[in-house]
Write a structure and sequence with these properties.
globular, Rossmann fold, 10 strands, 15% strand, 10 helices, 4-stranded parallel β-sheet
């Protein structure tokens, strides 16, 4: 039997690109968006194909990937539909909470498990993830209303059915507004006017380092938005990148709670 050719992987999802590298698949990457930056050394020679929402489809096609990895939140539906027309295998990811990482790892093994070492590395990532997930429970912790800001001008936050919100809920931090955003679309990342009556109920206001680069200069403006909240800068990568980083994100979250 002729062995299958090695995969040619295009990952259009920063978190999953990092996971692909952690599974030993970096040598098989042939394309990535510019936002795929970790691990930097392993990705330095991988061609860029635009942004996660502005994929250069002509360049991607020329790179002839055998597999393209996409995400329902990160990539536009029209991009995914176009890619279906020329890629042999499309891998659609959509982890909506830290509990979903086992299914994501199973997807990666299902697609790339024939590559030596992938299944074993996935098992190592899974073991660490399971241990940290078990260590991060809301039991015994007070419920705290939280606003997690990802953008300014307009203010944008996260719905409760997003990965970030469900991660925070592992320690009893419940994001406001108390709304689900649905399977896809803008409602998953609601905008605020700054006049919502529930803003006075917020006790923890978290300013993410990404995608908007909040810094200490935004503290005053944020404090006026939520006058009864403690304002803190948080590492957005550790709280929003999933997969290889989820275990570290859970540890970081426990540190934030104290």
């Amino acid at each position: 039997m002729t062995p299958a050719p090695p995969p040619r992987i295009a990952s259009l999802v920063p978190s999953v690109t990092e996971l692909v590298a952690a599974l030993g698949l970096a040598p098989y990457l042939v394309a990535r968006p510019g936002f795929c930056i970790h691990p930097a050394e392993a990705l330095a020679a991988v061609p860029k194909v635009g942004g996660t929402k502005t994929v250069n489809l002509d360049k991607l096609r020329r790179l002839a990937p055998s597999h393209v990895i996409v995400n329902i939140d990160e990539n536009r539906l029209e991009t995914v539909s176009a890619v279906r027309g020329f890629v042999p295998q499309l891998v659609v990811t959509h982890p909506c909470g830290p509990e979903d990482i086992g299914a994501l790892l199973a997807q990666m093994v299902g697609a790339f498990g024939a590559v030596p070492g992938v299944a074993e590395r996935a098992a190592e990532v899974e073991a660490e993830w399971r241990a940290e997930l078990c260590a991060t429970e809301p039991a015994g912790r007070p419920a705290v209303p939280v606003l997690y800001l990802i953008w300014r001008g307009p203010w944008m936050t996260v719905a409760r059915d997003t990965y970030i919100s469900r991660l925070l809920a592992r320690v009893g931090w419940h994001t406001l507004p108390a709304l689900d955003g649905g399977a896809r679309g803008a409602a998953r990342y609601p905008t605020l006017t700054g006049h919502e009556p529930w803003l006075v109920d917020v006790r923890e206001l978290l300013l993410s380092s990404e995608p908007y680069a909040f810094d200490a200069g935004h503290f005053g403006e944020a404090a006026r938005l939520c006058p009864n909240a403690r304002v803190r800068l948080v590492d957005g990568e550790r709280l929003s990148w999933y997969g290889a980083r989820t275990a570290a994100g859970l540890r970081y979250l426990r540190e934030l709670v104290g």
